[in-house]
């Protein structure tokens, strides 16, 4: 190999290293696993893409879209408490606590706003919380098949009424979903505790989040339209496919209302060939729409 090629490869490696940093960051006595990309290239006032992972998921789950996005935009990813390399904390990760932790991490790393928040599944709940507690820090919101933070118990029950489930069975299912105690799983505490927080929020019709204002920023929702539940795990009591379709329609109606609460507008993007992990099933669509949001914010 020639000296010239070796020099180019060395420069390329050092450039990539400079623009990508993985580290442990301590806030409030807890160590968090953090990854940043392209922060050194950030222009004044340029938004940073800040990612919230799905329930119990590590930051690597975003690798289908972050490599491409980081070519032109600074990116921040981290693992919540107890996930992957982040330190385990035996406290419930409530929306307010997670929002405050994320704010502390960004402050510790001197990553100033504005931020475009991107949340998948349970991460969508946490993104909604951060946007409500720190609205002035937010430039845009991207929800990737989120847990439905606009849902009420009445909404959930109506889905089953629409597909012909009896009132008695609806009451029994709601009791099991929300009011049957779950044994603490200390070995998988991060995922268990986030699931417990989601259940507690559903009991109150997400009162903590609905009490928060919606920042006046553009909003995107990506919705996976492919039912991924295997046949052997589908309900024997009702048509599971019909349930999935009615639930998605119900969710999207409320998400459109959420978008209309912002004067900046947005879109609900329904992807019929994508499952819950939309950013993995159709990375190009997610990347393309986030780039359009970034371009509109320039």
Short key terms for the protein model shown above:
298 residues; alpha/beta; Rossmann fold; 8-stranded mixed β-sheet; globular
SSE map:
Layout: H1 3-19, E1 20-27, E2 30-37, E3 48-52, H2 63-69, E4 75-78, H3 95-108, E5 115-120, H4 122-133, E6 138-144, H5 153-162, H6 167-178, H7 189-203, H8 207-210, E7 219-224, H9 240-260, E8 266-271, H10 278-281, H11 283-296
Parallel strand pairs: 3-4, 3-5, 5-6, 6-7, 7-8
Antiparallel strand pairs: 1-2, 2-4
Proportion of strand residues = 15-25%
Number of strands: 8
CATH topology: Rossmann fold
CATH superfamily: Alpha/Beta hydrolase fold, catalytic domain
Q: Mean of residue pLDDT? A: 94
Distance between the termini: 43 Å
Number of separate helices: 11
Structural shape: globular
CATH architecture level-2 label: 3-Layer(aba) Sandwich
Briefly note the structural class of the backbone. alpha/beta
The main sheet orders its strands as 1-2-4-3-5-6-7-8
Rg, Cα atoms, Å: 20 Å
Order of helices and strands: HEEEHEHEHEHHHHEHEHH
The domain count comes to 1
In CATH's first tier, which class applies? Alpha Beta
Organism: Dyadobacter psychrophilus
Domain AB hydrolase-1: 47-163
Keywords: Signal
InterPro entries: AB_hydrolase_1, AB_hydrolase_fold, AB_hydrolase_sf
Would you mind describing this structure in some detail?
Helices cover 44% and strands 17% of the residues. By secondary structure, it is α/β, with parallel strands linked by helices. It has one domain (20-296): 3-Layer(aba) Sandwich (Rossmann fold). β1 (20-27) and β2 (30-37) form a beta hairpin. α2 packs parallel to α11, α3 (95-108) packs across α4 and α5 crosses α9.
């Amino acid at each position: 190999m020639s000296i010239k090629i070796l020099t180019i490869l060395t420069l390329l490696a050092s450039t990539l290293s400079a623009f990508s940093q993985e580290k442990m960051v301590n806030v409030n006595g807890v160590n968090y696993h953090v990854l940043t990309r392209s922060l050194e290239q950030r222009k004044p006032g340029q938004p940073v893409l800040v990612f919230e992972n799905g329930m119990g998921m590590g930051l690597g789950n975003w690798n289908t879209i972050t490599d491409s996005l980081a070519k032109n935009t600074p990116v921040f990813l981290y693992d919540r408490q107890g996930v992957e390399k982040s330190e385990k904390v035996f406290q419930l990760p409530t929306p307010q606590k997670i929002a405050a932790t994320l704010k502390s991490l960004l402050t510790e790393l001197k990553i100033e706003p504005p931020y475009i928040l991107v949340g998948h599944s349970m991460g969508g709940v946490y993104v909604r919380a951060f946007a409500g507690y720190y609205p002035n820090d937010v430039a845009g919101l991207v929800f990737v098949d989120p847990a439905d933070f606009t849902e009420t118990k009445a909404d959930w029950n109506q889905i089953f009424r629409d597909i012909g489930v009896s009132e008695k069975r609806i009451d029994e299912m709601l009791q099991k979903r929300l009011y049957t105690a779950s044994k603490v799983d200390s070995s998988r505490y991060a995922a268990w505790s986030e699931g417990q927080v989601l259940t507690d929020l559903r009991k109150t019709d997400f009162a903590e989040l609905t009490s928060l204002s919606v920042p006046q920023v553009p909003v995107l929702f990506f919705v996976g339209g492919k039912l991924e539940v295997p046949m052997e795990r589908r309900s024997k009591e009702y048509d599971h496919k019909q349930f999935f379709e009615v639930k998605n329609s119900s969710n999207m109606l409320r998400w459109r209302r959420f978008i209309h609460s912002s004067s900046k507008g947005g879109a609900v993007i329904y992807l019929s060939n994508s499952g819950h992990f939309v950013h993995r099933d159709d990375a190009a669509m997610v990347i393309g729409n986030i780039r359009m949001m970034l371009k509109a914010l320039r």
